[in-house]
Amino acid sequence: MSLANRNVKDAGPLEMEPEQAELVVAELERILTSRSFRNAVRSRQFLEFVVRHAIEGHSEQLKERTIGTEVFHRAPGYATGDDPVVRVQAGEVRRRLEQYYQETHDASPIRIELPVGSYAPHIRWVPANGTAIAEQVATHAPRAVENPPTENMRPSTRWMIAALCLSVILVLGAGILFERSRVNLHQHTLVEQFWAPAFATPQPVLICLAKPVVYRPSFELYQRYARSHPGTFETEVERSNQALPLPGTEKVEWSQMLQYPDYGVAVGDAYSAVSISGLLGQLGKPSQVRIGTNYSFEDLRNSPDVIIGAFNNKWTMQMMPTLHFAFVEENGEYTIRERIPGGRAWRPNLREAERFGEDFAIVARLLDSKTGQFTVIAAGLTSSGTQAAGEFVSSQDFLEKGLRAVPGEWQKKNLELVLETTVTDSTPGPPQLVSAYAW
Fold this sequence. Notes:
By secondary structure, the chain is an alpha+beta fold. The chain has 15 helices and 16 strands. Strands 3, 6, 7, 11, 12, 13, 14, 15 and 16 form a nine-stranded mixed sheet that branches. A three-stranded antiparallel sheet has the order 8-9-10, with no helix packed on it. It is globular, with a radius of gyration of 29 Å.
């Protein structure tokens, strides 16, 4: 059957002819290589998986758990309620498909859509002439309306038919607008709104960690201890994983402490980087992790970025002084200070070598930072606070709960959030929002 002679029609996988399947595959390839999809690895994987299953007649297999295990490599029995990777990615694919067809101006004879509430793609054949609404009217309107014998009709009959046509058009148009509103509602979750500016550029998000200076005892010090404690610190595994218990009265020369440039990423920073990178992957945005001197201000000018850590990260400290909430060091105490007359202050209350107590953090979302790029800062007063900040911006539950409490249209503004977390055995608890400011 020639496509040129067909009106708009759903192409169900069971009725799709070989030539039609080839055209659908060709359209899929155009979509995957388009600007809307070429850099979105997860969106590409998702769309290719569901379309090829539909072409092969296996749409009934396109369930959330199946896609989660086969596309995103989740465990077969994973809890879909706790891990929304498939739902989030489906929304992202819908957004990118809409963007693709807007940019191509409906030039293709085929449209691949992903209806809300389903993971099975919807394939439509579109003739070269006519708009999408008119095509749907031609498909669904009664045949008497398609070729009305107007020359034999009385004026009242013509008016009735015209009114009927107008009603059909209005109903279909309202249905399309309603469906689009449902799509937009589904797509723009608070998590997606928070990270949306990162998608304004094809550049990957740079996740930037600090690497402070770290010193270790020299081999000579380990040998000195081993002479009085035979059998200890004989291997690098022992030296790297056990503290050297020299007595407090032991004299050590500065030359016996060596700088180790390969050491030094804080635990909380590492946790945050992994969590944020994972979320961006779920949203279909590529990211790159940069550590220490492996990135510069020029890099930050060219890509959206996430800066992790506070006092150990010079870029955080350079961007914070002019913000409403800022990290300051007051009399040797790490503090978050509200920079207004009589402003509030938050300081960590940790004990037993920072293993228990309360810590605080800042999450900043800057639409146009000093670098000229979209920037997110996730930083705590200590490593535990930084870990909590990373969990906040990478968790759908934490982020949506916190953002619902922010007044006004924060989506179009710069935003700062102050968080509190209770630390137990060096592990931060759920972050809680204690203050917010948008401008």
